[in-house]
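User:
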Amino acid sequence: MKAILFDASLCNGCYGCQMACKDEHCGNSWLPIAAEQPLTGQFWCRVDQETRGKTPEVKVQYTPVLCAHCEHASCMEAAEDGAVYRREDGLVIIDPLKSKGQRQIVDACPAHVIFWNEELEIPQKCTGCAHLMDDGWEAPRCVDVCATGALTYVDEADIPDDAEPMPVLADNHPHVYYRHIPRRWVYGVLVDRVANEVVIGATVRLMDAAGNEVAAVETDDFGEFRFKELASAPHTVRASVAGYEDVALAADTTDADVVLGDIFLKAVA
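Assistant: Predicted structure:
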């Protein structure tokens, strides 16, 4: 069984996969596998862009989202009269003729990657470029055009241990996996308010909710510190710098990354 593997560390956000999917399916009918994809309203391969953090520490994350051709496909269970079927190669296909009027197929997908074609009154989604596979292609168009190798088409047995499925599809045994998706991070700058200078080489510690040290770093030549790959949980940033009062600041990464910005140290009287 083949699977698509996305490596976030290699993606540069070019949107090539999204555009290639549109090029392949808009204006082209690949019956009996797929009817033409509408020009607007549907992205069978969609690149989500998330802006994380805030000025002065901002990062942009790109993640392609597409049908995972799940082993336990909710769309197949919701379909009537065999309107959704699995091919021998594992690709899950919505029959453009049998599925007419079956809007429940759209509603069944936990990842919301099945779309309703109002004009044709049919559900539509990524086919894994099954028509190209039948013509001898080794990978779907989205994978084929990826210039950085962020998307690859591999045997599922070769999926790295650190790769994970989309959380909402975990119970469905999907065949699209993601790796190196950045976890939470905390950023700040230590500043001497009186001298109007950054504090270099100071040790900053990150503590968990129980008061245990998670990590320790030193501020760089710009007074900056960064804690990366953190769990989504409450944290506290602590700094004890000679000549200054101790600092303790909340840094809760439960729902988002934390940018503390300039942290002004107060000299000991």
